[in-house]
Here is the input.
Amino acid sequence: MEAMRRAGRPRTFDPDEALHRALMVFWERGYEGASMIVLQEATGLTAPQLYRAFESKERLFERAVRLYQDEYGFGIRPGAPLIEAVVEYLDRAAREFTTEPGLGCFVSTGQLAAGQGAEAATAICRAERDHALDGLRRRIADAVEQGELPKTADIAGLSRTIAALIQGMSVQARDGAGYEELARIAVAAEALLADAAAADHHNEADAALVPARIDQDRPYQAVGHGETERVRGNQREAPPVHGAAREEGQCGAEGGARLREPAGARPLLPAEDQGQRQQAEGGEEEHGDLPADGVVHDEGEPAADQVKKPRLRFCVQ
Here is the structure.
């Protein structure tokens, strides 16, 4: 009777050891690939024992993720300069992802997609990735506040870039990349971050030199294709044009600037048109009688009616 009673007692086991073995299975196979049979073999427990200890497979997976974060998880070291901390972070990822007991990052790439019935496991890993991304944002925001990065730095873009590097390194580690190969990513990231920080500081310094409003002594600004316009409030006014008319058909010529006709200005016209307009307006010539073409010629210069003159027009967009 005593022997039967001893045989009927549940086998004792170490829950922590069983959880660690289950983590190794999930890390290698993912949630769906880790069947209950495989988990039983890895932990040495029966299905009833597993359910009594961990309630369900989803609960077991959740606890395995927590154990992974406690034993193998890491982040950017606080207190160090940002670029130095990021390089250290990526270099450690290159080392950890290529070292046993498991390849890659269990959270970054262990559960990216799942079929029906495994959505809960996917959500668990997604929440961990979001948490890590928030930590990167806070760290970069602190760097901006402390002056390590300019105020124009793209905090969201930088944080996602670093997160993407971590996830990509995890994938490459699962594909067989070694430490030395992945460590080059950390070196390249250092150069990119240094260049980005220097460029942003340079742009910020240049922006400080730009006046808040247009200088009254320089009321014109370029608006493209060689055009200039006067800016007054919310309205634009074209600048005065002196001798800027072009021969008909030359608008848009290579290297030529397109000019807008000033408000209220009249296009430059051949002399005969000027004479007709002046006659129509009742004006008088100040120089008395002029030749028919309206232009005084030097002695020996051919008359205007003997020279074919092109009609001049403004080039309008």
